[in-house]
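Model the whole thing, not chain by chain.
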Amino acid sequence: MSTIAAISTAQGAGGIGVIRISGEDSVKIADKIFVPFVGEKGKCLQNLSGYRAKYGRVLHGNDLIDDVIALVFRAPHSYTGEDVVEISCHGGLYITKRVLRAVLESGAALAEPGEFTKRAFLNGKMDLSQAEAVMDLISARGKRANQIAFGMREGKLSGKIAKIKEELVEILAGLSVWADYPEEDIPQVDENMLKNSIKKICKKLHAMIDNYDTFKCIKEGIKTAIVGRPNVGKSTLMNCLSDSQKSIVTDIPGTTRDAIEETVMIGDIPVLLVDTAGIRDTLDKVEKIGVEKARKYIDESEIILFMIDASSALCDEDRELLDKLDKSKTIIILNKCDIAVKVDVQELSTFKNRIVELSALKGQGIEKLKEIIENIVGLSNFEPSDTVVCNERQLLALKKAVKILKEIINQMNFGITLDAVTVLIQDTLSVFMELTGENVSEAVVNKVFSKFCVGK
Amino acid sequence: MIQEDEVNNISKIKINENYDISIIGAGHAGIEAGLASARLGCKTIVFAINLDSVGNCPCNPSIGGTAKGHLVREIDALGGEMGRTTDECFLQSRMLNLGKGPAVHSLRAQIDRNKYKEIMKHKLELQENLYLKQAEIIDIFYDNHSKNWILTSRNGIKYASKCVILATGTFLEGVVHIGETSYQSGPDGIFPAVLLGDSLRKLGIGLRRFKTGTPARVLRSSINFEGLEEQCGDENIVPFSYDTESIGENKVKCYISWTNDKTKEVILKNIHRAPMYSGKIEGVGPRYCPSIEDKIVRFPDKKRHQMFIEPCGLNTEEMYLQGMSTSLPEEVQTEMYKTIPGLENVKIMRFAYAIEYDIADPQQMNATLEFKEHAGLFGAGQFNGSSGYEEAAAQGLVAGINAALRIKNKELLILDRGTSYIGTLIDDLVTKGVNDPYRMMTSRSEYRLVLRQDNADERLTPIGREIGLIGDERYKKFIENLNLKNEEKKRVKNVVIVPSEELNKMLVSRETSPITTGVKMSDLLKRPQITYRDLEDFDATRPQIDKSIFEKVEVEIKYEGYIARQNNQIKELRRLEEKIIPSDIDYKKIRGLRLEAIEKLGKIRPQNIGQASRISGVSPADISVLIIWLASKMRKKEEN
C-alpha cells in the first residue's frame, strides 16, 4: 500500500498540530524533511526503534518551516498497524499545512477521508463494529465529496482543468492514430509541434499553481518585514497602516516574540507586518538573540519593506543593511518625503519600479505601496473568479502533471521514441482523470474515431 | 432454469454422440478453441455449417497489423495455431511502425486465403481428440439430469457435452445487405444460423445486433497497375511464430490508389440507396472500419481517401479493395469503383456487402469467457462483440483452454491486463461491454511498453507451458533463449567500451556526444540514437547468438526506466486483482455503497476488486467500502 499523510489535529488555531504519515515508506519520507538538532539528517528516524522521538526541524527544500518533534511507531504497533511517523509542530493552519505539503512532496499521498481508520481495520487493529462505523463515515464523507466534486464540475474551477484534459486527449488521439493507423492518410506527428503543445500546457499549469499561491496569500496574509536603521520611521509606518484600519487590526495571540506583529489590510490584501529590531553586528548576548530572530523573520517574509529616511542622504549603515537583504522581494520606502528627498535615487536604480516615496506621518504614498505589493504577489494578474485550484490535493495533481510533462520534454530532447512519450502523456492524463473518475483509454479511442477518418 | 416436467422429458432424450466439449463455429475462434481443448486431452467436436468455410477469411486477406500483430504473437506464445499457419502461407510480410518505438512495432502479413483455409482445416482433421463435423446447431439446452449440455442439429442429431463454446461469428441470424436487396445469409454466401438465436434467448442470454461490411473482390487482369504506387514486403522477414525456424520470402506486391471528386459525387448521388442511410440496417457498425459512404459523409472536408489493392492468393486472380467496403447497390458499386485510377475498367467478381448479425453482450461473461449464469457455456470471437480474425482467435484460445480446465476441474485461466493484449481485450469486453465491434489498438493498453510483440514469449509461454500447450522442445528452446538474453544483458552492463577516434566519429555522426573515458556498453545503448549494430566494431566480446536476442536486450536497456515504471503499475493492478469477490455477493446488503454502484456492480458482477474498479460509475469510495466489506467477511470466517 502506498504511504499516506494528513493533518491529524483539528484544523484551526491550537497549541500544537500533528501531521501523521502512515505506510511502508513513512519513516523514509519523514527523514527527507527532518533535520535533528542532534545527529545527522538522512537516516536519523530510520535508525530509530518504535515509540521513540527526535527533536529537530522540518525543512521544505531550503526553507525552514518549524521546530518539531518526530515520533516513530513501528508496525504493527501503531494506530494503523503500519510504520507511522507523527510530526508535532506548532499549531495553526499555516504551519501544519506547510509541513504537510513538504511531506506530500517528498512522496506521500494525501490520505482519503477515513483512510487511516480503514487501514487500521484492514491491519486488524479494530473490530467489526468499529469497521462498520468507518464504512458509514466513508460513505457520508463520500457524499459530501461528491457534492463538492459536483460543484467543481459546474464551476470555472474544473473548466480550466477540463480544457487542459481535452488538449491532452487530442494530443494522445493524434499519437494513437499515428501508432495504430500507420498506413492511413493522416497528418504526421510533428515532434516540435508536440513539444510546443506540451510546453504550453506546462505553462498553463504553472499559472494555475502560481494562482494558488496568490490565492493562499490572500487567504492567509502576506508575511512582510519592515527593515531599516533606527528612527527612519518604521513604527510610524506600522501605526499609520494599522491606525487607518483600526477595525481590522488583530494582534496575533500568544506571541512571545520581541518583534511586533500585526495583520493590517493594504487595500484588499491582508498583510502580516513584522517590525524587526534593527539588524547589526553586536557582541551583546541578548541583543544577538534579538538580531538573529529578526534575520529569521526577514528570511521567511515574502516581502521586505526597506525604509530609508529620505530627508537625509543614504548612509553606510543603510547600505550595509540593504546588502544583506534578498533584493528580489524588497521594496524601498523613501520615508519623510514630505520634508525633502535628498537620497540619490540613482544609487537605488536596481529597484526601479519598487521605490515608493511616502510619508508615514501624513499617510501619503500608501496607494502606491499597495500597487507595488499587489504586483509582487501577482495580484495584478489575479482573477478571484479564476481560482482554479482549491485544495492541496488538486495542487498536488497539478504539480505531478507538471513534473511528468517536464520529463516528457526532457526525454524528447534526449531523443526517446514517441511510443514512450505516449505512455507518459497517458500518465499525465490519468492524474486529471483520477480526480473525476474517468477512463483514459476510452476517452482517447472515442476521440480517435470522431476526429480521424481511419479504417480499412 | 428448467421446469420439472421438462427435466423428466429430457432425461429420456436419446443422445447420439457424447463429447467433453463442443464448439459451434469453425472460424478463427472455433479453430483455436478446438485445437486447444483437444490438445489438452478433451474429446472435442467442432461444428461448421459448411466445412469449406473452416478458417475462412471473408474480409481482408491479411493477418496481424497494429496491435493485432501483438495478439497473434501472444496466441503463438501461449500455444495457439494462428501464427504458425500464417507463417506457412504468407505472401508478403511487413513489420509496421519501425522507427516509432518497440511498443508499437507490429507484424502484418498478406496471406494466401485459400491456402490458409486448407492448412487450418487439415490441422483440425489431423488433431487427435478433435472431430470436425458439418452441421447447423439449432438448439442448445442444459440437461440437469445428465449434467450435460445437449445440442441438436438441423437434422435432429443430438450431441451431449460438458462444455459448449459459442463461436458463431457473423453467422448468427446473419442478414446481408446490398443496396435495396437484403436476405438471410452468412458471410461469403454460406448459409446463416437462423434458429440457434431463439434457443439462446430461451436460455436468457441477451443478444444484440451488430453490423460489419466488406469491399468488393475484383479481377486482377481488369486492373491497370500503371501509375499506382507499389507496396512491397520487408527485406528481413520476422516470423509470427516462435516455432518457425526458416521463413519464406515475399511473393506479391500490393498497390495504393485514391478516391477523387467523382467517387464522392457517385456516392452522394446514391447515398439514399445505402441501407445504413435508408434506415434498413439497425445493427451498429464498427467505427474503426467505416464504409466508404460513411467516410465521405462523416468527413466531407477530406478531398480523397486512400485504398489498397491486395491479392487474395497465388492461385486466384481475385483482388481485395481495402478501404472501400460499401453496401450500395451493385450497379452503383460498379460506377463508383470505376472512378478510381487503375480501376477504370474493373470487373467485379464479388460485390461488396454489409452483414448484420447477433452478438451476446460480453458483460454476461467472466474474464474466463464463461457465462456467469451458465456453467460450462463459453463465448468467443465476434459472438462476443469483437471484430477481426486475431481478436477472435485470441478469445477462442482462452475459451478453449478454460473449457478444458473446467472439464479437468482445475482453476480457470484469467489473463490480466498486465500480462497481454489478450487479457486487455477480454477485460475490456467483459468489464466495459461493447457499443460497436471492438478492434484491438495499442492505445487500449496502458502497459504497452511492457506488452511488446518481441517479448510475448516471456510473458505467456510459461503460462502456456503450465497449462500444457507448450511442448518440451519448444519450452527448452524458450528457456535457452531466455538464459542467453539474461547473460547478454549482464554482459553489456559490465563490458566497458573504451574511447577511440573511430568510436567517437560514429557517436558524433549519430548526433550524440563523444566519450573521453571508458563507458559501460549499456550506458551507450541507453542513448536513443545508438543501436547494437552501431557498437559491433567496438564490442570485442560480443557472442554469436540470434539477432533477436540483441534486439530484446537493447529494448530492455533503452527503456529500462519506463519498463520499471510500468511494472510497478502492473504490480499495483495485481494487488487489487488478487482480492476476489465471492460470486454470491449481494451488493444491496453492503452498507455504504452508492445506488449507482450497487446497480452497476450487480449487473457486471466483477470477479475481483481490480475489475470492479474499472467499471464506470463505481467510485474510489465504493471500492474502499468493498475492500472493507471483503476483509470483514474474511475475518468473520476466521473467527468462526
